[in-house]
Write a sequence for this structure.
């Protein structure tokens, strides 16, 4: 039996020719058969299942890990004889030190000092910063402050590395202060006890109520004797008694014997921080002309009216009485009464007269005449405001029936042909067309009487509906009749 032709100088497939070219003649791709032997082209050898060229230059790895070698056959595949160099930590040098395909990518150790940025293989601080104590810092603009009192000697500045321990000086080093942290220009930079020009005024008794004009002085923490910083002086007129610390302000005071902040009369006096007993500052009086200055529960004349049920509707005329912050029980301020007099002052649910009509079924259609009733915000049940009635109700016990309590319905017409051909009697299906729905709607019922009505034609025939099925119309031709006639079904709906 013939077999598969292989390179062996034998006619394996018995076709009269040995070692003719064909698929599978040699085991490796690229080999040729000669004198019964398979061999690769010159300069190639078998690696795996193909002829390949070995010994060429090659390299493995990326970045600084890249290493050169030659192509060899290992485990049936062409590989490079080299082994990649080990990666190192990425630093700022334009090289791919960690062999990940990118050079100088951001990392914690890319630059040696905190805050430095890597650009074009070099580390530097961001614009406006410099290396200060092993880290990039924003420089601070500082002015001279020789006595370290936070008052600067001049307005000129130079940039310095910040001192984290001198936040009060705007982080400027000792002997310097940042303009933004400075209290101002030092009036004596050689003495830490005198550093600022401060406005001061005369205050002999030290009660902080001053007199006379303000004068600038070079001082430290405290003002000079018998003077007060202008900013610490009480706002207002000069001290009315600068030798007496218990009296310093000329002000209006008012009589308030019962202490209810309702005052009677006013006068101008030189007092201390508080008025004498039985008086108060006129500016703290909540109201004047106390109508009962010996009774703190009564202080104002007010117009009040009776409102026993507290519904805001008053039942009697207003009277003027001396009251406290609120009217007595059962009364309210006349100004808070509703404009409508209370029609039932013992019932908070009823307070106004409403003009209503009857609407028991709530369909907005009313019966009966308008009448006034004492009610609350809404009309009593079974009624509605006359102005909200949509019209007269034909049946007030059926909310589905409004102005019309009955209507007819009709089907479409059917036409029956009589003569040769059609049978004398036929049943036709018709549909409700007036109104569009079948039968009576909710709330209505038929009177039980249906009628089949002829609607025209060339002859007169009879028509009737199928009992219980008013849309099935039975039509019968007259004896010997020839032509056609039409019929439809009628019915009436009545409100329940």
């Amino acid at each position: 039996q013939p077999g598969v032709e292989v390179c062996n100088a034998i006619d394996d497939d018995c076709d009269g020719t040995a070692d003719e070219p064909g698929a599978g003649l040699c085991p490796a791709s690229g080999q040729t058969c000669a004198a019964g032997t398979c061999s690769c082209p010159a300069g190639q050898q078998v690696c795996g299942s193909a002829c390949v060229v070995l010994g060429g230059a090659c390299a493995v790895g990326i970045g600084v890990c890249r290493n050169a070698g030659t192509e060899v056959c290992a485990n049936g595949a062409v590989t490079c004889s080299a082994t990649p160099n080990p990666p190192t930590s990425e630093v700022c040098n334009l090289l791919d030190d960690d062999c990940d395909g990118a050079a100088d990518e951001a990392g914690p150790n890319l630059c040696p000092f905190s805050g430095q940025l890597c650009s074009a293989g070099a580390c530097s601080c961001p614009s406006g910063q410099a290396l200060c104590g092993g880290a990039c810092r924003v420089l601070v603009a500082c002015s001279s402050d020789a006595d370290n009192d936070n008052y600067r000697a001049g307005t000129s500045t130079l940039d310095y590395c910040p001192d984290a321990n001198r936040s009060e000086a705007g982080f400027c080093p000792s002997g310097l202060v940042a303009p933004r942290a400075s209290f101002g220009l030092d009036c004596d930079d050689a003495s830490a006890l005198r550093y600022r020009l401060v406005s001061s005024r005369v205050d002999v008794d030290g009660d902080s109520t001053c007199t006379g004009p303000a004068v600038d002085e070079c001082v430290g923490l405290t003002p000079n004797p018998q003077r007060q910083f202008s900013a610490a002086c009480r706002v207002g007129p000069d001290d009315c008694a600068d030798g007496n610390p218990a009296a310093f302000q000329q002000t209006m005071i008012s009589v308030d014997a019962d202490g209810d902040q309702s005052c009677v009369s006013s006068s101008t006096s030189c007092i201390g921080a508080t008025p004498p007993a039985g008086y108060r500052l006129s500016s703290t009086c909540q109201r004047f002309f106390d109508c009962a200055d010996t009774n703190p529960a009564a202080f104002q004349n007010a117009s009040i009216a009776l409102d026993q049920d507290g519904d805001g509707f008053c039942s009697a005329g207003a009277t003027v009485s001396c009251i406290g912050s609120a009217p007595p029980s059962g009364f309210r301020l006349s100004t808070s009464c509703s404009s409508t007099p209370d029609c039932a002052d013992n019932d908070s649910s009823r307070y106004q007269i409403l003009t209503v009509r009857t609407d028991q079924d709530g369909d907005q259609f009313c019966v009966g005449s308008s009448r006034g009733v004492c009610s609350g915000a809404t009309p009593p049940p079974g009624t509605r405001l006359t102005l909200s009635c949509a019209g007269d109700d034909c049946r007030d016990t059926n909310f589905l029936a409004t102005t019309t309590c009955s209507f007819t319905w009709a089907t479409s017409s059917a036409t029956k042909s009589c003569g040769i051909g059609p049978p004398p009697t036929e049943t036709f299906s018709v549909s409700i067309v007036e109104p569009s729905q079948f039968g009576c709607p909710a709330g209505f019922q038929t009177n039980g009487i249906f009628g089949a009505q002829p609607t025209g034609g060339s002859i007169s025939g009879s028509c009737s509906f199928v009992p219980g099925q008013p849309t099935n119309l039975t039509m019968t031709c007259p004896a010997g009749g020839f032509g056609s006639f039409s019929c439809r079904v009628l019915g009436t709906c009545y409100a329940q």
